[in-house]
From TrEMBL:
The lineage of its organism: Archaea, Methanobacteriati, Methanobacteriota, Stenosarchaea group, Halobacteria. The keyword Coiled coil applies. This is Phosphate uptake regulator. InterPro entries: PhoU, PhoU-like_sf, PhoU_dom, SpoVT-AbrB_dom, SpoVT-AbrB_sf. Residues 268-295 form a coiled coil.
Length: 333
């Protein structure tokens, strides 16, 4: 329920306003308490001032194993807990191995304490030192290099390059978790956004774009897996067509990301519109390659068709980033 208050003047020059008593009681604010104000545009956020402390969460893992346990640890991390206590009557060896593996897959986490019935994980990174901009930039570099190397592995029938692409997907996933953790922190408290030095709207744009980059990394991994299953080299004309399709898709992604990071709204709009228009051409190019595959053995044609689809989808994700960039460049109401 919205409550209104009148602004009053005390001492001739100081503006004062009362705060709702119910809110103050629920949040432990009383006479003498200190509060913090965070300006954001024409809004002013007020929050109780608390001593700097790390948030701790406890999770009962008695019924969690394997992927479910891994996902639980990731969820606690993304939710913003600095200390994660995992408890069971007796933690099994399999659970310990899963917890260690999940910890290694997340940036900044380390096992702090292990007992028979409890494992405590702590985030060693200072959240104020994390940069969502740097994380998304790094995701861009890794995902695009993965996509390029996946096509090289296909062209050269090189299993080692394909395996390297698959391994690098873990790096993209780790960064995606970092971006998600930072973004959710900005939703919980205006202090997190202030420490980042970015408005929450831009954090949302970065988070949305990071999701697209994570999916591009997944499709590069898919292409690498398909390459490993191919026993014979791909025909030269198909290789050339796929390489050209990849170049066009990479250009869309680059233009979309450049538009996202560009401060000049006019330039950002031009780059974003260029990327969105190029997606339509890529769809036509992909259909032409599908026609080329009709002359091949059905099984090989199907596998190569999946690769065409992955490249096209990567371009679509670049188009989504461009759409986000257009929204970011639009005038603010």
């Amino acid at each position: 329920m919205v409550e209104t208050r009148k602004v009053q003047v005390t001492g001739g020059s100081t503006y004062t306003v009362s705060i709702p008593k119910d809110w103050a009681t629920e949040n432990g604010v009383s006479a003498g308490s200190e509060v913090e104000f965070y300006p954001e545009g024409d809004s002013l956020f007020l929050t109780p001032r608390t001593e700097e402390e790390r948030t701790e969460g406890t999770l009962d893992i008695s019924n969690l194993e394997g992927d479910e346990l891994t996902r639980a640890v990731m969820t606690m991390y993304v939710s913003g807990f600095d200390i994660i206590a995992l408890e069971n009557t007796r933690i099994t060896n399999d659970q310990r191995r899963t917890i260690r593996k999940a910890t290694q897959g997340l940036v900044g986490l380390e096992v702090l304490e292990e007992t028979r019935d409890r494992v405590v994980i702590r985030d060693l990174l200072d959240s104020s030192e994390l940069s969502i901009h740097n994380a998304v930039t790094r995701m861009r570099l890794i995902a695009l290099s993965m996509l390029e190397d996946a096509i090289v592995a296909l062209e050269e029938n090189d299993d080692d390059i394909a395996r390297d692409v698959i391994q690098r997907d873990d790096d993209v996933d780790r960064l995606w978790m970092v971006v998600s953790r930072i973004f959710r922190a900005t939703l919980r408290t205006p202090k997190a956004a202030e420490e980042l030095g970015l408005p929450r709207e831009i954090c949302f744009d970065y988070h949305s774009s990071a999701r697209q980059m994570e999916r591009i990394g997944d499709h590069a991994t898919k292409i690498a897996h398909l390459t490993l299953t191919m026993e014979e080299p791909v025909p030269d004309d198909v290789v050339r067509a796929l390489s050209e399709l990849h170049e066009d898709a990479a250009a869309v992604i680059d233009d979309g990301m450049d538009a996202l990071f560009t401060e000049d709204s006019v330039e950002a709009s031009q780059l974003a519109n260029k990327a969105r228009e190029a997606v339509q051409e890529i769809d036509e190019h992909a259909r032409a390659i599908d026609e080329l595959l009709r002359d091949l053995d059905p099984a090989r044609a199907q596998m190569l068709g999946l690769i065409v689809d992955s490249i096209s989808r990567s371009a679509d994700y670049g188009g989504n980033i461009a759409e986000t960039a257009l929204q970011k460049a639009a005038p603010t109401p």
